[in-house]
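Quiz preparation item.
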C-alpha cells in the first residue's frame, strides 16, 4: 500500500506532459479554465519539471555550439548588477506583467480581451506622451478602465470567432513572446532566433496553462522559471 502513492506521483508528471503535447499538436480553446486550484498547482509543478528538462536540453545544445566556435552576443543582464530590487522585478514583476500582456486575452472572453487592450493602449500612450503628467494620466485611466471592463463583461463566454481561430492566437502569442526577448541582445539579426528558443518553449507551456487552469497558473510557472534563473545567476556570482 505504501508504494502506491509513489507510483501515482511518478505517473502524474508524464500524464501532464502528454496532455500538453496533445494540446500543442492541436490547440483548442476550452469553454472555461478548470477551477480546481489543487489540480492547477499539480499541473504547474509537472510542467515546471518539463520546463527544466527542455531548458537543460536547449542550453546543452547551446554549450555545444559555443564549443564549436559560436560567439554569444552581449546580453543586457550581463551588464546589470543583480540587486534585490532587480531580482524581485524578474521573479514577480516581469511574470505578472508579461502574462497579462501576452496571455491575459488568450481566453478569448470579451472582458479579458478588452481589459488587456485598454492596458496596452494606456501603456503605449504613456510611453509616447510628452510629459510625465500625460503619461501618468494615461496609465491611471487604463488601470481604472481595465477592471471596469472585466466587471461589465464578466461571465461572457469566449467569442466564437476567437475559438475558431484559436490556434492562430496561441502560436502568435508564443512567437510574439519569444520575439520581444530579442531586444535583450545588443545586436539584431536572424542568427539570434535560436537564442530565444527557451522563451518560445516556455510560452507554449504558459499558453496551455493559461487556457486550461487560468491566468494565475501561467503566472506561477513563469515565476518559478524566472526564479530558477535568478538562483543560478546568484550561484554563479557567488562562485
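Solution:
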Amino acid at each position: 500500500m505504501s508504494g502506491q502513492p509513489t507510483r501515482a506521483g511518478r505517473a502524474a508528471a508524464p500524464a501532464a506532459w502528454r496532455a500538453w503535447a496533445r494540446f500543442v499538436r492541436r490547440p483548442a480553446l476550452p469553454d472555461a479554465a478548470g477551477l480546481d486550484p489543487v489540480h492547477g498547482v499539480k499541473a504547474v509543478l509537472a510542467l515546471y519539471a518539463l520546463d527544466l528538462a527542455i531548458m537543460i536540453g536547449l542550453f546543452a545544445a547551446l554549450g555545444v555550439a559555443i564549443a564549436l566556435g559560436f560567439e554569444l552576443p552581449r546580453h543586457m543582464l550581463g551588464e546589470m548588477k543583480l540587486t534585490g530590487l532587480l531580482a524581485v522585478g524578474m521573479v514577480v514583476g516581469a511574470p505578472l506583467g508579461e502574462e497579462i500582456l501576452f496571455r491575459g486575452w488568450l481566453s478569448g472572453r470579451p472582458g479579458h480581451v478588452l481589459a488587456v487592450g485598454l492596458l496596452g493602449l494606456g501603456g503605449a500612450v504613456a510611453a509616447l506622451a510628452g510629459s510625465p503628467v500625460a503619461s501618468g494620466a494615461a496609465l491611471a485611466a487604463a488601470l481604472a478602465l481595465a477592471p471596469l471592463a472585466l466587471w461589465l463583461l464578466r461571465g461572457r463566454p469566449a467569442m466564437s470567432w476567437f475559438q475558431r481561430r484559436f490556434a492562430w492566437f496561441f502560436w502568435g502569442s508564443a512567437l510574439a513572446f519569444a520575439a520581444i526577448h530579442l531586444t535583450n541582445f545588443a545586436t539584431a539579426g536572424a542568427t539570434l532566433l535560436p537564442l530565444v528558443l527557451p522563451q518560445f518553449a516556455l510560452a507554449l507551456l504558459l499558453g496551455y496553462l493559461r487556457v486550461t487552469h487560468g491566468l494565475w497558473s501561467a503566472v506561477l510557472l513563469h515565476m518559478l522559471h524566472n526564479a530558477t534563473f535568478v538562483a543560478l545567476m546568484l550561484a554563479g556570482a557567488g562562485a
